[in-house]
Amino acid sequence: MSQDADNIRKWWQTSIIDMEPGKIAFRGHPIEGLIGNVSFPQMIWLMTRGDLPTKAQALLFEAALVAGVDHGPQAPSIAAARMAATCGVGLNNVMATGVNMLGDVHGGAGEQCAELYYEVAQAMNEGVELEEAVEAALQNWRETRGKIVSGFGHRFHKPVDPRAPCLMQLVREAAAEGTVSGQFAEIGEAIQRAIGRSRGADIAMNIDGATAVIFCELGFPAPLSRGLFCLSRSVGILSHGWEQMQQGGRNKGPMPPNYLPLYQPKDPDE
Q1: Which CATH number does 109-225 carry?
Q2: Which pTM was predicted?
Q3: Fewer Cβ neighbours under 10 Å: the N or C end of the chain?
Q4: pLDDT recorded at residue 2
């Protein structure tokens, strides 16, 4: 092989796929052995982690993915997708529009929450007690990110986000069976209690806090929490985009046409 050919082959290096004419293998597994034998959540795990999960791990992982698929048109990602669907773009453009709305504020809370959990876990690994580690992590959070702690509280679901208790129960059951350690469930609930004490009222753990518990329990790095949420929410974005296409409508904006934005002229003295 010439030096140029060798350099070209090395331009993109991957351990994810081995492909040549007549051959496709993901992480060393021939595609023929995966089709019909692994679930889509197992495939996501394989592609991102490099190995296949146990059945119990896959079930817990799948539960987190199922829980985040949709939150209705009031969610910015879904609203944007539905509006895009009325603008004459294709379904792939509709989905891209919705996914591109998933940023630090809407869609990124799971990653931020996982970072917080891992910070507490690191302190505990160094010998700090749970409650002390939580208080220190929350103080650091508030000094650097403000009073709103990602993963806790919800503008719509009060006092309970119905998704979180279900997921946390599954984590507890998985911990009892030895599938996961249960450490991050304890950390998440300790943070929830600490926030409640500081505000003088209970606060809900939301979907981001609960799925972050699961992703941390399963060993996913914090940044993947956001990517996995994007995969999950893509199901809702696809569904709403397709539904809007069937309903029709053109250039459907965020408000009915008989409601106009408030015109507020600029104060010339400002």
Answers
A1: 1.10.230.10
A2: 0.92
A3: C
A4: 80
